[in-house]
Amino acid sequence: MSRSQDRSEPRRIVDPRELKALSHPLRMRLFGELTARGPSRAVDLANAVAEPANSVSFHLRQLARYGLVEDDPEHGTDGRERWWRATTDEGLIVDFHDLEAMPGGPAAVGAFKQVTESTAHALTALSFRHLDESTEGPKTWFNNFVLHLSRSELDAFLDDQWEVTSRWMQRSREVSNSADGETRHTYFGVSNGAPLGQVLETEEAADRTGDERSGKSQ
Fold this sequence. Notes:
5 strands; 7% strand; ArsR-like_HTH; single chain; globular; 8 helices; ArsR/SmtB family transcription factor; three-stranded antiparallel sheet; HTH_ArsR_DNA-bd_dom
């Protein structure tokens, strides 16, 4: 499954099968590593994710089958080594509403949400557990903020935020294989938001459900 893709634009997921192909922890990790590192060989990715190279190659081929990664024509020209790259440098756009209306959509969206929610929970737990101000080694951080904005102001803020993120994603790929002696780690971050009132209402509803399941009463 292939379609033309401008690498300077995010890739829009338009087929539930694409989303389903990505809804696997190792495949999401591999896609993330390629986005952060730029073109890589399966053996390099295997070392990065601590998985056998044959398993990594299999999952890369599955991602390629649905147009999420591809051969990098600028590397491996001698035919002895296969280099892979993500089909976009700018991430993915997923319209869950549209996908859920397609055959196979609800299952694909459900699987993707399950994996991403699990990853987000793990990120939050890890961030709180290892918060520190050390200047050496991998860093863990947690930032939150509250804004009072109109919709147009919020859209402008998100455009600014993405511009900064995109610039550093490009820098990440540029320095990934440099021989400058720096130790680098692949970091995963999430930026999401919602009206504060809705967040608190959802949290209160979850607390009530938890109390009911545990048999607690007011």
